[in-house]
Structure formats: structure tokens, C-alpha cells
Amino acid sequence: MINDVGFHTKEFSQEMRLLLALLEVNHPNDYTFEYWELLQDVDWPHFIQLARHHRVFPSISRMLSEMDGAPIPSFVTSLFQRDYYRNTLQMLALSGEMEQLAGVFSEHDIELLFLKGPVIAADLYGDVSLRTSCDLDLLIPIQKLAEAEALLEGMGYRKDDYITTILNDWKWRHHHITFHHPDKKIKVEVHWRWNPSPSKEPSFQEQWERKRQSSLISRPIYYLGREDLFMFLISHGARHGWSRIRWLLDIKKLANQKLNWPRLIALLRKHQYSDIGGQALFLTAKLLASPLREEMRPLLTRKAGWLAEDTMFYMERMVNLHSPPVPQDVQKYHKKYLFSLMTPRQKIQFMTSFLFPFPEDAETLPLPKKLHFLYFPLRPILWAWRKAKRQAA
Q1: Which residues touch 97 (CB under 8 Å, ≥6 apart)?
Q2: Mean pLDDT, residues 257-270 taken together
Q3: Which superkingdom, per the lineage (predicted)?
């Protein structure tokens, strides 16, 4: 077993260390005296805030309820129980909607894979109430997007038209479309890829061939195979700086399943995810006491360790990248961090993408659609014009 994870967590607050300690073990009887010491003089409002921010309050609620004799104020257990109850209702509602969506898409011959949500909660945690989800993420073939949009609108969903595009750049600059149901208060994200460019990932057909069927409900519900799920979860978590512990807890649960490590490592190398795979394993080992086994060694590179250490910026600050406005120092760091995740080939592809026209170019100089090809030679001039205007302002 490999245990030499080098980065430090000494800057973490007592409440953060307690949170991680509670997530390290599977049962309160596994705790040592050191963990019980962390329960002394806790800033409980801050602890609750951390558990909610990191979306791990269902697991924390379950663990605290099983700790007989622990010095935990009643208001803390009551708040966690309330959150746990609300989350259970939310997950049951999402499960029902998931079943409806699977039925409608199946009737119209649209192959559909669920990326997250209740199926992942049931698979990784054995109980849908032990994981949080605020929406449903679907993956479909890109050629079925228009048909899927019509089906969702027929079910009462409304599309969030936040994507602006030129010369079909939406296909690679974006990766999903968002829909909201005003009555059910449910959000659905329809993906045609896992992440924006320059990510490299398996084709939909490859993922479909490796799919699994969930036993959560009687209707056939399909989701990613174990190795594909590992790749998707690490790519998603890494892109968000692992700023929520729940994503690492998912990896810990998945790594404890019967993964085919030789196949997984081959897939990670093929799709340029090896370093972030190692990053995820280093983080789960350091923060959640997940064992690093010999079969994982090819992923545990020096760069993976550096990338893991880089995420401490997010952990120490309780960063929320999903709620604008994001502080400028966080934005600046995150841009550099995302670039560091890329392989040399991806960095070249990313830099080259700036030569492709942006929707802002069409706003700066509107042209008829048949002349949009002119934005390629005009792009440097239009970019310089916008920059000069901003500086003047």
C-alpha cells in the first residue's frame, strides 16, 4: 500500500478537520481518541455551514446520530435531521422525474444515460438519501438534441437560453443545455459531452456499450459503466477544483468498488485523464483516508501530487464557483489552475481556439450569416478594438 501523500492540511480549521474525520470512517466505533478531541469547543454554526457547502450533510447527519454520548448540541442534530429529511424528499422527487424522463425518451428511441443524481447515490452509497443532487444530468447523442428539446418542452420544461454562438462553436465550447420546470422546481441538464473543449472523452456509443442498468426502479434506467463513471467524476471534480468534498467522497466510494484498474488506467491514458485521476486518488487518500493500492501506482505521478496540492486553495477558502460574482482573486487563480490541468496537447488546442471567432465578434461587427467566415481574419482587429474601448472606459 502507498501512503506517502505529501501536501499539508495544517491550515484547515478545527471544524474542517472534524468534518473530514467524520467522513473518514464507516462507523462511530472506528473513532480514536483524537477524533473525539475534535468534538471539544467546536464552532457548530461554522461546522454546519461547512457540511452544507460541501454537500455532505446527509452522511454527517447519519454519523452524528450514531455517536452515542458525543458532546453534540441538540440544535445541531435537529438541523442536520431537518436537512436530511428535505434532501430525502428532493431525491425521491428526482427519482420519480428520472423515471418519467427515461420513459418518454425511450418511447421516442433516444438513447439516454444518466450521469449523476439518484442512480449514482444508489450505486455508490446504497441509499439515495445519503447523497445530494439539485438536478438531473442526462447524456444523449448530439444529433438527438433538437428532438430532446422538443420532448422536454412538451413535458413543461423551459430552456435556459444562456448560450450565444457563432459558426456552431456551441458544440465544443459548451457541453450541456439547461432546462427548468417552473411547477416541479426541477432542473435538467442535457449533455452531449462531459466537459467543454479541449477535454477528450469517449464517444457516446462507447459509453452506451459499457453502460449499466440501475436497479433503483423497475423501468430500465441506464447509467455509466464503472470506469466511465470514474473518468466523468474526476473530470467534473477537477474542473471545479474539488471545491466540494462530496465529489471526493464519490471517488472514495467508487474506488472501493470492483474497478478494472488495468482497463481504467488504459482509458485514462487514452483520454488524457491520467494526471487528474492521480490527483483525485491523492486527495481522497489525504483528506478521507482512502487507501492507495499498488494497482493505482501508474496514476500517482509527481504532477498528480502537485495538482492535488493546488486544490488546497479552494478547500481553505470554502470557494463556491457556482454562485456569481466569484471574487477576482479566485477567478484569477482558477484560470491558472484550469490551464495547469491540461496536457501539452490540450494547451495547444486551447490556445488555438482563441483564433476561432467568438459571439462577441458578431456583436462588435454584425455581418450577414453568409459572411461570418470573415470573422476569422477580422478577429484580431475586433479583439483589439474591444480591449481599447474597455481601457478607455
Answers
A1: 136, 184, 186, 188
A2: 96
A3: Bacteria
Domain with residues 91-224, CATH architecture: 2-Layer Sandwich (3.30)
What cell numbers appear for 15 in the block?
Answer: 471544524
Mean pLDDT over 101-123 rounds to 96
Phi, psi of 40 (to 5 degrees): -90, 135
User: What is the signed CA dihedral for 319, 322, 323, 324, rounded to 10 degrees?
Assistant: 100
pLDDT in tens, 47-89: 999 999 999 999 999 988 887 777 889 999 999 999 999 999 9
Three cell numbers written together for 98: 428520472
- Beta-carbon contacts of 30 under 8 Å, excluding residues fewer than 6 positions away, are none
Q: What is the pLDDT of residue 68?
A: 74
User: Per-residue pLDDT averaged across 358-364, rounded?
Assistant: 93
Helix H, strand E, coil C: the string for the chain is: CECCCCCCCCCCCHHHHHHHHHHHCCCHHHCCHHHHHCCCCCCHHHHHHHHHHCCCHHHHHHHHHCCCCCCCCHHHHHHHHHHHHHHHHHHHHHHHHHHHHHHHHHHCCCCCEECCCHHHHHHHHCCHHHCCCCEEEEECCHHHHHHHHHHHHHCCCEECCCCCCCCCCHHHHCCEEEEEECCCCEEEEEECCCCCCCCCCCCHHHHHHCCEEECCCCCCEEECCHHHHHHHHHHHHHHCCCCCHHHHHHHHHHHCCCCCHHHHHHHHHHCCCHHHHHHHHHHHHHHHCCCECHHHHHHCCHHHHHHHHHCHHHHHHCCCCCCCCCCHHHHHHHHHHHHHHCCHHHHHHHHHHCCCCCHHHHHHCCCCHHHHHHHHHHHHHHHHHHHHHHHHC
Model confidence at 3, pLDDT cuts 50, 70, 90, reads: low
In angstroms, the CA 105 to CA 100 distance is: 9
Q: Alpha-carbon distance 213 to 36, whole Å?
A: 41
CB 216 within 8 A of CB 118: yes
What value does the mean pLDDT take over residues 151-162? 94
> Are the beta carbons of 233 and 251 closer than 8 angstroms?
yes
Please state, in angstroms and rounded to a whole number, the distance separating the CA atoms of residues 38 and 132.
25
